[in-house]
Amino acid sequence: MLNTLSGRFLILTIIFVMLAEVLIFVPSIARFREDYLLSRLERAQIASLALLADDMIDMDLEEELLRNAEVYNVVLRRNEVRQLMLSSPIPDPISATYDMRSPPARELIRDAMMQLLDREDRVIRVIGAPVLEAGLLIEVTMNTEGLRMAMLDYGVRILVLSAVISGVTAFLLFIAVQAILVKPIKGVVRYMQSYARAPEDARRIIHPTAGVRELREAEEALQTLQTELTASLKQKERLAQLGGAVAKVSHDLRNILTSAQLFTDRIEMSDDPLVRRLAPKLVNSITRAVNLCESTLAFGKAEEPPPSLTRVMLADLVSDVVDSERLAVGDFDLSFAEDIPAGLSVRADPEQLFRVISNLVRNARQAIVATGQAAEIAISAREADDAWFIEVRDTGPGLPPKAQEHLFTPFQGGIRKGGSGLGLAISSELVRGHGGTLTLKETGETGTCFEICLPKGDVAGF
């Protein structure tokens, strides 16, 4: 409660109202004392009128008049003559005299505070002007106990009333602050929290509604910030996707162009003069295209489009991959083995599955060629009740530990020097798009084996 905005407003309001009431209390208690003393003078004057009407009154009546006036004696000065009108024994000597004929405010406040703090019952003389100019002055003697008790009673009532006013005022201010400040601020906080969860969602951008000018300015500033940030995030996301897409296209296009280079080598052997003249230009153009593809591999990766699933004859697809790789091998002692059951078809995107198997075979071929040792790459497949399994196994040198740590991480899982590490990352993503997995089954000095698992799922439509 104390650490909330409305709670602190509530406490501060009570404190400030009580301070204001204290400032009002001091002059109020002084005014009450003045009115009290003047009322005693007025009562004393009324009591003295009985004596003016009848010069001789008995002692009982005089005592009753003084008791009603709450004084010990009454002195009235008329026509320059000071006359003791009513009197009774005074229990103690007079301790102080107060002249109530136009006293200064500072003196009234000082005397009132001293009277309030003095707990001893004293006898005082009070001088004032008679009502309706019925004489020059009137003075009475009285005790201070009744005066002090009346002042305390009045002060308590003032304090109670102040507390009630403070409570009501604080409650009303609490409600007002809740409605005018706290509720809009909480709304802004909720918008910020909602926006933080999904900054790319334009629906979460705040819509200024505050009626308070300062809060509305804050909402408008936040709206501008969120709008610019959302636009910036979308732009960066598009650029990242574009960069990733370019990297993937460049990676696969580089492989295609590399295969094209092999064909141009054979074209150069042609006896046709025109072909022999144009072949070097074709080779140079392809080489420049390969270099351009490799220079764009610094871009990030993007999400592949969903695969277009259809029935694929796996043996034909694997055969295409092997034919392309045989051209790349040339005279190197590297053999290929295909163990694909006749008539085995899998549910997959043919283009994406070709890229996956091609990447795995190409990585194996490049690793083997780099060693200069004869080896074999074998592609096999089998069918289970719930999935198809495709293995790409080689007898190469195995994967180094660093490559195994970041095997499917873009730009970090490169196996050969100068490699981008995109091949396995792209392949893993493509297989995941089919709902399957690409895993490294084993690697070591005897070779490496990758396994592709493609779940069957619901094949009723095929």
Which key features would you list for this structure?
462 residues, alpha+beta, 56% helix, 17% strand, ATP-binding, HisK_dim/P_sf, transferase, HATPase_C_sf, phosphoprotein
How would you describe what is shown here?
InterPro entries: HATPase_C_sf, HATPase_dom, His_kinase_dom, HisK_dim/P_dom, HisK_dim/P_sf, Sig_transdc_His_kin-like_C. Keywords: ATP-binding, Coiled coil, Kinase, Membrane, Nucleotide-binding, Phosphoprotein, Transferase, Transmembrane, Transmembrane helix, Two-component regulatory system. It catalyses: ATP + protein L-histidine = ADP + protein N-phospho-L-histidine. This is histidine kinase. The protein starts with a helix and ends in a 7-residue tail after the last strand. It has helices spanning 5-53, 59-69, 105-117, 145-197, 213-267, 273-295, 314-329, 350-371, 401-405, 422-433; strands spanning 73-78, 81-86, 94-99, 123-128, 137-143, 310-313, 334-339, 345-348, 375-383, 387-394, 437-444, 447-455. It is rod-shaped, with a radius of gyration of 53 Å. It has a 5-stranded mixed sheet with strand order 2-1-5-4-3. The protein has a 5-stranded mixed sheet with strand order 7-9-10-12-11. Helix content is 56%, strand content 17%. Among the domains are: 5-168, no CATH class; 305-455, Heat Shock Protein 90 (2-Layer Sandwich), CATH 3.30.565. By secondary structure, it is an alpha+beta fold.
Mean pLDDT: 79
Helix content bin: 55-70%
Report on the biggest sheet: 5 strands, mixed
State the secondary-structure class: alpha+beta
Outline: rod-shaped
Model regions low in confidence, pLDDT < 50 over at least 5 residues: 298-303
> What's the number of helices?
10
Gyration radius, rounded: 53 Å
Question: What fraction of residues sit in β-strands?
Answer: 15-25%
Order of helices and strands: HHEEEHEEHHHEHEEHEEHHEE
Separation of the first and last Cα atoms: 66 Å
Strands of the widest sheet, in order across it, are 2-1-5-4-3
Task: Kindly state the number of beta strands.
Answer: 12
